[in-house]
Amino acid sequence: MDIIYSNWKTAGAVQNSTVIDVAISEESYNLYNAVYAVAHALHDLLLHQAEFQGLGGVKRLVHFPWKTPQSLCSESCGRGFRKVHVEGKAICCFDCIPCSENEISNETIDMEQCLRCADNQYANMQRIHCIKKRVAFLSNEDTLGMILTFLSLGFSGLTVSVLGVFLKHRDTPVVKANNRTLSYILLISLILCFLCSLLFIGHPNPATCILQHTVFGTVFTVALSTVLAKTVTVALAFRVTSPGRRMRWLLISRAPNFIVPFCTLIQLIFIGIWLGTSPPFIDIDIHSEYEHIIIVCNKGSVTAFYCVLGYLGCLALGSFTLAFLVRNLPDTFNEAKFLTFSMLVFCSVWVTFLPVYQSTKGRSVVVTEVISILASGAGLLGCIFLPKCYVILLRSEKIYSYHSKNKKHFETKMSSEY
C-alpha cells in the first residue's frame, strides 16, 4: 500500500510539475510543494497516533487490516475467556484461556479477570452467563425416589403379610418354637424400619430431620435386641433346661424378653443426649452438585450419630457371635443358623455403608442411607421369617408328623410357652 501511495505521489508530482510550469510561477510551485509535504507529514503522524490508542493508561496496539505486516501477535479474547500475558514477549502478546469453573466473562473482550457467579448461581457451558441454581432433594416424584418409596412400601406390606401368617398359625410348632412374643415384636419393628425410610424421602423440614435418625436408631435397636433375645432363648433352651440347672429359672421366667426394653433404653439415652446437645437441623449444600442447591438434614453432632450407629453395631455383633456359637444345635426347629445368616447380612450391609457414606455427597448420602435401611431390614426378614413361612404354608404335614412323634422332646427343648 505504501509503495502504491509513493508511486502515486511521484506520478502526481511529475504531472503537477508539467501543469504548474505552464500555469504558475516558480515561487508558487515551491510554496505548493511545501504545503503538500506538511500535509503528508501530518497524515503520517495522525495515522501513527491512531495505531496506538490508550486503554486504561496502557498503550495498546490496534490492528488495521489494510496494514501489512499485522501489528498484533495475538488475537483478541472473546467472551468466556480471559487473557494471560506471555512472559518474555511484548505486552501485546497474550494467551486466551477459558474462565475457571463458576466464573464468566461476558461484557468486554480481552478481560484479564473473570467474574465469579454468586453462591446460588452457576456458570453455563460457554462461561458467559450465570444461571440460578435449582433447589433439589430426594423427592418421591423423581425416578429414584419413586423406586425407593415403592421398595419401602413393598417390604412393609410383605412384613405385614408375614405377621398375618404368624398370627393365623400361632399355635403351630414352628411359630411357638422360638417365643411367639419376640417374633411379633421383631416383625412389628421391621415394619417400622421399612416405613422409617420414608422420612428420608421428600422435602426436609425440622420435624423430619429430627425423626429421621431418632426413629431409625430406636426401631433398629428394638429389632436387633429382639434378635439377641431370640438367640439367647435358643441357647438357653438347649444348654440350661436339664434338671437341676440353676439357670433354668431364666428360661421359665422369660428373662430373655427383658433384653429388648433394657437395650432399647440404653439407645434412648444416647438419642436423648444427642437431641439435648446438638440435634439435627435443616441445612443447605451449595457445593455438592454444580447446578443444584441441595436441601439436606444436617446431623448436628456427628459424634452422637456414630455413637448410635456404634451401639447398633455392638448389638448386631453380639447377636451374630452368640448365634454362630449355637448354630449347630441339633433340632429341626433350631433357628440359630437363620439368626446367624441374618446378622451376617446385617453386619455386611452396615460395614459397607460406612465407607460409601463417607465418600458421597448431596442427595447420594440420603440414597445410601435409605438403601442401607431397606437392605438390612430385608436381610432380617428374609433370613429369619421366610423359611418359617415356607414350612408353615407348604410343609405343614411333615412338621405336624414330626411334632406328634417328638412332642415331649420338642416341648422340653424348644417351646417358648415357658
From TrEMBL:
Question: What PANTHER family does the annotation carry?
Answer: CALCIUM-SENSING RECEPTOR-RELATED, VOMERONASAL 2, RECEPTOR 118-RELATED
Question: What is this protein's name?
Answer: Vomeronasal type-2 receptor 116-like
Residue ranges annotated as transmembrane are 144-169, 181-202, 214-238, 258-282, 302-326, 338-358, 370-393
Q: Where is the G-protein coupled receptors family 3 profile domain?
A: 144-408
Query: Record's InterPro entries?
Result: GPCR_3, GPCR_3_9-Cys_dom, GPCR_3_9-Cys_sf, GPCR_3_C, GPCR_3_Ca_sens_rcpt-rel, GPCR_3_vmron_rcpt_2, Peripla_BP_I
Q: Which organism is it from?
A: Mesocricetus auratus (Golden hamster)
Membrane topology reported for the UniProt record: Multi-pass membrane protein
Q: Where in the cell is it found?
A: Cell membrane
Q: Which gene encodes it?
A: LOC101824853
In terms of Pfam families, this protein maps to:
7tm_3 (PF00003), NCD3G (PF07562)
Read off the PROSITE patterns from this record: G_PROTEIN_RECEP_F3_4 (PS50259)
